[in-house]
Design a protein that fits this description.
This protein is an all-alpha fold and 94 residues long. It has 2 domains: 59 residues, no CATH class; 33 residues. Helices cover 68% and strands 0% of the residues. The protein has 4 helices and no strands. The mean pLDDT is 90.
């Protein structure tokens, strides 16, 4: 069995698939007809019901956003420390 290439779906396509399900088309038929994985389909349903958006940043919790912000800040601070260490080494040589 050959691996499938990763497919990208437009937000419009995702919305149409979700609407089919909400209008009564069985989940199993949708998955088979459009060759979708159940996890992708379930994620689209959840995202649409929660926020109406399929963008990951629109579907994050406040804690997830805070975690991302803190990771970025931590990375920036570690870079600053590295620069200061290098400067201290250079100044120590003079």
């Amino acid at each position: 069995m050959t691996p499938r290439n990763r497919r990208n779906f437009t937000d419009e396509f995702k919305k149409q698939v979700v609407q089919l399900n909400e209008n009564g088309k069985p989940r199993k038929e949708i998955l088979k007809e459009y060759e979708l994985s159940s996890s992708a389909f379930d994620r689209w349903l959840s995202q649409f019901r929660n926020t109406g958006s399929f963008k990951e940043e629109d579907n994050r919790t406040a804690e997830q956003n805070e975690n991302i912000r803190l990771k970025k800040e931590n990375q920036r601070l570690m870079m600053e420390v590295d620069v200061l260490k290098q400067a201290a080494l250079i100044m120590g040589r003079k």
